[in-house]
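Quick one - inputs below.
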Amino acid sequence: MTQALDVRNVRASRGSQEVLRGVTIDVAPGEICALMGTSGAGKTTMLRAIAALGPFDSGSITVDGFELTPGVVPPESKLRVLRRSVGMVFQSQSLFEHLTVMDNVTLALIHALGWARDRSETEASALLTSLGVGHRASAYPRQLSGGEAQRVAIARALAPDPTLLLLDEPTSALDPARRGSLGEVLRALAKEGHALLISTHDVDFAEAFADRVAVLAKGVVAEEGSPREVLSDSTHADTRALLRSPSAEPRE
Amino acid sequence: MHSPLRWGGDAEGGAPFVEADPANPAKVRGFDVEIASMIAQALHHDPVFVQVAWASIEASVERGDFSIGMSGVEDRPELRARHAVSIPYFEFREVLAVRFADSARYRTLADLARKRVATLGGTGAYQMLLDLQPRGGPVAISYDDDVHPYSDLVSGRVEAVLLDNIIAERSLKRTSGFYIQPVPVATGHYVAVLARADTALRDSVNAVLRARMRDGSLEKTLRAWNVWNDSEARYFARVLADSSGGNTASAAQGVRSVRSYLPALARAAAITLLLSCLAMALAVAVGIAVAAGRVYGSRVLRTPLAIYVEVIRGTPVLLQLFVLYYGLSGIVRLPAFLAAVLGLGLNYAAYESEIYRAALQAIPRSQLEAGRTLGLSEAQILRLVRGPQALRLALAPMTNDFVALLKDSSLVSVITVVELTKQTAIYATNIGSWVVPGLLCAAIYLAMSLPLSRLARRLERKWSHA
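Output:
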């Protein structure tokens, strides 16, 4: 089966510090993979390298058949294919503050894909409705609650129909009830055939909604498997550290 | 050691009136300087020169900056209505200067219907042109100095210059290439002006002047400065024969009413507004381009743009206007209004570009990255995401600059554009008071800037989506 994402032996540095030391992960279409690890484990660095927002030093990253090479990030003109295949939801959402929800979602359709406005708005409306924020189409980002903003950010990333959707700490700003409903939304997306790679240190969330968990520690994938295997019965020291970490505790 | 007698004049007006002494630039010389000394000595005082802008001599003497103003001050009814004025000590002729090629065509003002005729603002000649203008006469072009009317005549920006014969002859030595029509358009007189209440000193001054005309020392001074001729001799004889005081100016004309200035003021306000709007539009367009170049461009592009911004910001806009209008006139002869728009626009562009640059750099990187992951090109991100957000940040400082530009537009009077402040100054000089014109002018500026600030606040509120 062809993978939506295939990361092989990737090394990457942040400043002078090497944070990824040979990471290998793959995600299949229809699969939700939770990339876990304590703060500073390199989750965001990994996601940024896959989205071609940051460089990596060696190894290879292949998204939907498009291979990214190590070294400086290529110019946007050489990333057209990748951009169509990868959607990203930022931790801070990064919605465009000067545009309405509708305009946030249609921006890529109209300007990157060249769709007509009517068609784009029909598509965006359907997407927003399916994510439960159809009634907020004319609002501006500042008027949205945290949960609404998260869903709009997902709708924006999904609008061009990417094969792979990256989500960076999507639950960090949500209360437990909203985490659950976000999980349902993500499951539905996987069911449609999207591949999802979610960076998180939220153990409950990963346990409830991920198909697979990869624990990042000391720059490599320390443990990988189903949530039950990894998170419930782990004997691995790094995973136990993650389970004990303060950020994972308040929910207990 | 005598007590000082302070007298005011403008050394920028130059010889033969008052000029800085080449041998000792701290001192002044000229026939006005010598006449002032004659007066001071006769009254047992030491003359002390006070430098004052020519157009401000009357206002300055009235507020007591000095006792006597004399620096080619022209006798006119308004002057006599508002100040104490001496007997005229010199008769000049208003003469027409034209290019050689036009010497047969333009002999009198009547030949110059609807043609551009230059003169010094605030003079009798300017008033004469303004009076003729509504009746199909020449179009008066006002200058703040007496050098550029002649250089602009030679370069073809104006068709003729109307000024007194002394200035015309002096300019002929500096700027060749024009011809002075021998038949004068009118005659006028130079006088000393004193504060309205200072009639006692005025009478003493008159007595001294008459005595020096009689004993020939005034003639000697005027001869020394090459401004003596037969008509001057006839004029002196007339003054001495007329014991009433040689007051040749009639008061028949009277002081113009406030109302008669309103149309000119309204027109000047429209020019200020149009000029400011065009200059601001240019500043915004160029400012955005410069800012984008400095944020996105290569070093080869960034360096000249940085130099442009620093040079423009580091030098006075007045100097830039002079260079653009006069300095470049050998290469490109810009019309005054266009030069004003370009000068102010390019000056403000430097400031605007810094505002936009800061605003562009203030947009979080994550906003740009969000645009990239959506597949937008860098140009699209600038146009659709970064630019619009930066513009919202820049709105408040931009409004501030536009209000500043409205007021800075008054500087363009140095390149002959008569805008609101210049028109107000003309008006104030004519009626002899700044109170009404000043209030009126301030009200018009406020009427232009306040709605703008309101509009900006409304936009800011709309954009805040609070």
